[in-house]
Amino acid sequence: MPHIKIVPTGGVSLETAAAFIKAGAEALGIGGDLVDVKALRQGRDDVVTERARLFVEIVQQARAE
To answer: Do the beta carbons of residue 34 and residue 51 sit within 8 Å?
Structure first.
């Protein structure tokens, strides 16, 4: 059903993101694999920023293939 826009919200990780996009996902809902609570508590928001950058890179590459 290509007319239905799907946004997976479970099981999305750096390892699975490309497969979801290639399978037709419109977008991805990313939670635990993006936000490292321990790092945030330590003031390391750079960890979240870097993981977000990696997700964007993976999605862009998957869409280009």
So the answer is: yes
pLDDT digits (tens, 9 = 90+) for 34-59: 999 999 999 999 999 999 999 999 99
Q: Answer whether 0.85 is exceeded by the pTM.
A: yes
The C-alpha atoms of residue 8 and residue 30 are separated, in whole angstroms, by: 9
Listing DSSP states for the chain in one string gives -TTS-----SS--TTTHHHHHHTT-S-----TTT--HHHHHTT-HHHHHHHHHHHHHHHHHHHH-
The pLDDT value recorded for residue 3 is 84
